[in-house]
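Hi W., the guanosine-5'-monophosphate complex you wanted:
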Amino acid sequence: MRNGNLFVISGPSGAGKGTLVARLAQRVPDVWVSRSATTRAPREGEQDGVQYDFLSDAQFQKLVDEKGFLEWAEYAGNCYGTPLKSILEQLEAGKQIVLEIDVQGALQVRDKMPQAHLVFIEPPSMEELERRLRGRGTEEDEVISKRMEAARFELSHKEDYDMRLVNDDLDRATDELVAYIDSCASETR
Ligand code: 5GP
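Structure:
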C-alpha cells in the first residue's frame, strides 16, 4: 500500500477537469475523489450526494462555523467547500486523494497542507473554453460571462501550481496526470 497524498486539481470551468478526474479514478486504483458541498442549485441530471452535497446557505454556513471545511470559497456567486473529516480519514487510509476545486481553495489547501500537490488544467484557448461552456447548453449567458471572468482570474494563478497540463488531447492529458500522481505517490512510499 502507498502512503496517502493530497492532489488538488484546478482550472477554469470547462477546461475538462471533471472528465480527466473520472478517467484518472478508472486508471489508478487507490485514487479517491472527494465530494464537495455547494450552495449552487443542481444542474439537470445532477443528484444530491453524487456530484455534490447540495446545501442551503444556512447549512453551508453552519459547516463553516463548525470548522468542518478544509477550505471553502465563493465561485461565480455560490459557495463550495471540501469537507475536512473525510479527507483526514482517506489520507490515513493511504489513498491518493483528489480535490477538484478552484484557485482560491487550492491556495488555502497549500497553506494548511504544504505537502499537497497542485495541478492546473489549462484549456487550449479562451475561445475553446467559451465554446465548451456554451456547448454544455446548461447555463444562461450571464452565468457563462461570470465563468469566463472567473477563468481569467484562475489562469492568472497558473504559475502557483506544481504542475500544469494543457487539455487539448484527452488521452495525452490523462496519461500525463496518471504519471504525475504515480511519481508523487512513489516518492512518499
Ligand atoms: P461547478 O459549479 O461547475 O460544478 O464548479 C464551479 C467551480 O467550483 C469549479 O472550478 C470547481 O472546481 C469549483 N469547486 C468545486 N468544489 C469546490 C470546493 O469544494 N471548493 C472550492 N474552492 N472550489 C470548488
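The beta strands are 5-10, 31-33, 37-38, 53-54, 69-75, 78-83, 96-100, 117-122, 163-166.

W.
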